[in-house]
Amino acid sequence: MTEYPESQHAIQIVGKEEFVVNTSKAIDPVGPHQMMLKVEACGICFSDTKLLHQFDSHPRKSDVIAGIAPEALTQIPSYHPGSAPVTPGHEPVVRVVEVGESVTHFKVGDRLLVQADWKHLRTAKSNGAFGYNFDGALQEYVVVDERCVVSPDGEEFLIHVSEGPSAAAVGLIEPWATVEGSYAWAERNHVADGGRLLVVGEGCVDALTAEHTPAEVVRVAVDALGEVEGQEFDDIVFFGADARAIEKAALLLGSRSVMCVVLGGARIDGKVSLDIGRVHYDFTRFCGTTGSDPVEGYAWIPANGDLRKGDKCAFIGAAGPMGVMHAMRAVTCGVPGLSVVGTDLSDERLANLKEVVGATAEKNGVPLDIINTGTQPLEYGYTYVTCLVPVPALVSQAVDICAEGGILNAFAGIAAGTFGDFDLQGIIERKIFMLGTSGSDVSDMRTVLRKIEAGIIDTTISLWAVTGMAGFGDAIGAVMNRTSGGKIMVFPMLHDLGLTPVADLAEDFPEVAAKLNDGLWTKEAEEALLAIAK
Q: 3-state DSSP call for residue 249?
């Protein structure tokens, strides 16, 4: 039988804006369908701050209502929905140290990367997730249930990794995968087959439904939207240009839905208030046409949000941790003819961005410009804009610099229910596709893993600091206040290590700094840090 300490160090979120460093958290028992994972390292994500802010109102903190038998949930000691305290942390690398008798997909000794979104486990508005309504990895040991990490169709949410990469390099795959996922998500350029279609106003949808057939078509007049208040639809076709009515209709969009505004020669008078948070978290989409056929509106929705040949790219907020990843992906993706502009308001952070990405961009022949938009605003003409700052006004302003046929990636996690005023008339006229994604799929993580193994990227370029449990407060504060220069990796087994930037290792831990590779993290540096701390 595997032996464990009597208790462990763990971070627990216990309420809105409230966390504790629990130095004596019990280690959960392992049931027949469960595994004990020992945490090697776990990254801190900006999404952790959203859970801290929202706690039991976060869509991934609610009860699982489908995808697993209710009695099975009662058998999982790490399941903590609603107001129950929970351990965050969804960017780890772990090692299996014990398995229950009914576990068939994993064995003791497996080194694994966790895909945190267990999408077959449905909550009211999202899905079950590691580090949200199930305990995450900001602790030394965590129990997971195989029925959660293997879907009914056999998809595994624990990915086997080799012994080669450092724990930090593997732990950083998850955030890099969310970047990859934002480009790979398959968009829908037709009405949903078998879905609910709402038609608002007078107009013809026969051509739209000729090849793709909704299960139900509901028609209402523009001034009769109250008749369908509270309902949700997979598609909404709105005939007209009344801004306030468009806003009212948009509230009826369901998850992963599309709204097509058919102007019929009319013009929208002024900005339209849209829930930009739902574009990110619920994958809602907007399209339209200046003509009278909704097919024309759906037609310009791209297959996905990936970069295209010749794109003139702007990454707003590129000097932050996620922005560095987006910029690096752009200069290494191999799409011909790209140019990249990275912006921020801090010259210091921009200098770091240029240092990290500049050499690779030059090597690959991708023009890279660094701009402080506090002194030099961006001008119109970009064909791909990614907004990495969770401010609705910045996303709205990004529309204004998009050229015809542009893609606007609202990557920053703005909470659902957050509205911004958008030039929907301009979006429709210039066919600007606004997308947002949340999380990643297993395929995205495997893509990043392949890139690491092929030497295309080094995820540790985004590592700014390391810490043990004692430094978590400073670490999460740096993430919330956007003062970190990149990602922070937590080593839960190191109880007393405070927040230590990699650049400061030479002063604090010269033995570790000596193992860095041109200032970048290595497995040897990691081993030296763990040896010193022990």
A: helix
**Is the separation of the CB atoms in 130 and 116 below 8 Å?**
yes
Local structure of residue 505 (DSSP, 8 states): H
Buried b (16+ CB within 10 A) or exposed e, 30-44: bbebbbbbbbbbbbb
CA 75 to chain centroid, in Å, comes to 29
Question: For the segment 19-29, what is each residue's pLDDT rounded down to a tens digit?
Answer: 999 999 999 99
Strands 382-387 and 127-129: unpaired
CB atoms < 10 A from the CB of 332, how many? 17
CA distance 178 to 438: 7
Q: Percent of the chain beyond pLDDT 70? A: 99
> Whole-angstrom Cα distance, residue 302 to residue 289?
15
CA dist list (Å): 238 to 210, 212, 294, 436, 437? 18, 18, 9, 22, 24
Ramachandran bin of 458, using left for φ above 0, alpha for ψ from -120 to 50, beta for the remaining angles = beta
Q: Is the dihedral of CA 12, 14, 15, 17 positive or negative?
A: negative
Provide φ and ψ at 70, rounded to 5°: -55, -35
The DSSP 8-state label assigned to residue 517 in this structure reads: B
CA atoms within 13 A on the CB side of 520: 13
The span from the CA of 283 to the CA of 440, in Å, is 13
- Summarize pLDDT for 363-397 with one digit per residue, the tens: 999 999 999 999 999 999 999 999 999 999 999 99
Q: What confidence score (pLDDT) does residue 293 get?
A: 98
CA gap 510, 139 in Å, rounded: 27
Question: Measured between alpha carbons, how far is 307 from 232 in angstroms, rounded to an integer?
Answer: 32
The secondary element (H helix, E strand) that includes residue 105 is: none
Q: Would you state the structure tokens that stand for residue 522, as one six-digit string? A: 């290595």
| Strand 233-239 to 216-220 pairing | unpaired
Cα distances (Å, whole numbers) of residue 8 to 11, 24, 360, 432: 10, 5, 42, 51
d(CA 502, CA 513): 8
Helices 321-332 + 173-184 axis angle, to 10: 60
Collapsing DSSP to helix, strand or coil, 461 comes out as helix
**Per this entry, what is the length of the chain?**
534
The DSSP code for 84 is S
Task: Give the pair of three-digit tokens for residue 236.
Answer: 């909404």
**What is the mean predicted confidence (pLDDT) over 110-120?**
94
DSSP state of 225: G
- Residue 315 structure tokens: 């990454």
Q: Phi first, then psi: what are they for 200, rounded to 5°? A: -110, 125
- Rg of the chain, C-alpha, whole Å: 24
DSSP string, 259-278: EEEE-TT----S-EEEEHHH
Return d(Cα 224, Cα 39) in angstroms, integer: 55
